Structures are given as structure tokens and as C-alpha cells.
């Protein structure tokens, strides 16, 4: 427990540029695992994860479908652990994402998948974890110990690790990721003032909706989780397209909307969503490299990157916002009520 509320979360947010640099320096592990995957020529990919890692897996789903053009599914661990399903996974790539590597259901899914023919890859921050031991291949995200309950650096490091793996499978050299350490440092520094303005604007908000499309949908989901678990804010996340298919009816002048809007096809589509909720009187905060092109009342701009790596930067000001709102509401985000660092579901 930190002496000053939020100390661990603040420190771990600030560590992210260095974590990115270290991970990029260790890119060889990704090329080795990627070569093994490419040699097996999987016909399908499955992703298994929980919590923040589930949002990272969603990001990987977009990467695999777009960059590798493979069909991808997100597993339901309970079909294995509760119902005993054992589908034939011959020629399937199963990637299990878990920062701790200690969730029993994810270990069970990976073990069962390997037994049924899948090529299993564990992506974890704990190289000697049970998950890493049961997977055929494993990747260390190298984020170091994370003391705050809310995942920050382990989440963004997982995103970068998944990008480096998938990019290497397609034969890439990680070029789009090389500038991320410097860009992350710039993003964290330049976001401080607009994030503080957003904290003052939304510190008494009762409900908030987050939205994004494409790669940025993962950011919208993770931002809502961070706000809920650290600030106890009632936050719901939607694909921008799904938001317009019904939930938009509940959006009005009493609703705060956090829209993730970066340069690229997903951001262009999200701007249409922002226009729609703006017309309904919503109080909008836009995060991303295309935030300045929106009618949002509050904007948190970010450096522009290739769209496929934008979520690695997008989450940074969302983490700062979650930290700031928690402290403004008198909450210690290092010790949110009812939560532990490792959640062991079965």
C-alpha cells in the first residue's frame, strides 16, 4: 500500500516509455516465435484472456484479421472449465494473454488447446508462470513488477508485444513501433494539462460512455474499465457502430462521452459517431491524433502514428484521466475496493 494515494499508478504510467524501449530492444524473441508460427501455417487463430488482457486480445484480433488475413475468435474459457468442451484445434493458433500468467481458467484453456492440436503461445509478464509452463511457446512482455492494482504499463506492453509478434509473423521489422518510446514520452507530457482540464470537467460525472472503432475499440473498452475500477465511475464502452444502433437513445446532455479518435479509417468513422452524440447534447472528450478535427468540448491530442499502433499511445491519457479522477474523488487508485492484483477465475 502506497503512503500517498496513487503513487504506484502514477509511477507505473510514467515508466511506459522505458518499458517500450526495453521491449523493442528484445525484439528477437518475437521473431523467433513468429518464425515457429509461420512454419505451422495456422488456418485460424483463437485468443484467450480476461480483464485488461481481454482488451489487448481484442486489439490482437484486429491485427490478425487485417495484417494476416486470418479468421480470429475470442474464446469463452468456461466452455472448457465448466462444460468440458474439447474441440479439435488442429492447425489453430491459440494465443493466451495474461499479465500474471496465474489465472487457472486460462491455464486450463491453454493446456486443453495444446492437447487438442493447437499451437499455443503465452503472452505474459511472468516468464515462470503456470501459463508459460503449459504453452508450447511464450513471450515475456518485460514490464517489470506492477504494484498498483489497476494495470497500466502491463496493458500497454502487452499491446506492443502482440503487435511485434503479429507484425513479425507477416514478415515485418517492427518499423511502425520504433518511435513509440519517444512518442509515448511526448504524449504523456503534452497530455498533462488537457487531462487535468478533463479531470475538473468530469470529476462529478455520474455516468460516462466510451466509444471507438477499429483498432481503437480496444482503447475504448480499456478506458471504461480503468475509469470504473479506479474512480468508481459508471462507465460503459461501445463500438461506435453499436452505439448508434440503440444505446445512443440514452445519450443526452447529462452524458459524458469519451471518444477515441486517431488518424485512420477507424478514426474517420468515429468522427461520424461524435457528430451524432454532439447533436444530442453530450459532453464529449476526444482522445487521439484526430481529436482536433472533432466538435468535442474537451480534446486530448496525441502524436500521429500508423493506425495499427495508435492504441499503444491512446491508452496513456486515458490512464492519466483515470488516475486524476480517482484522486479528485478522494479515492486511492492503488487500492480500489473489492479488487486484487490477480483474479483467479476457474
Automatic annotation (TrEMBL):
MF (Gene Ontology): carbohydrate derivative binding
Record flagged with keyword Repeat: yes
Cleaved signal peptide residues: none
InterPro entries: GlmS/AgaS_SIS, GlmS/FrlB_SIS, SIS_dom, SIS_dom_sf
Residue intervals of the SIS domain: 33-175, 198-336
Segments passing through the bilayer: none
UniProt keyword list: Repeat
GO biological process: carbohydrate derivative metabolic process
PANTHER family according to UniProt: AMINOTRANSFERASE-RELATED (PTHR10937:SF8), GLUCOSAMINE--FRUCTOSE-6-PHOSPHATE AMINOTRANSFERASE, ISOMERIZING (PTHR10937)
Protein name (record): Glutamine--fructose-6-phosphate transaminase
Lineage, top ranks: Bacteria, Bacillati, Actinomycetota, Actinomycetes, Pseudonocardiales
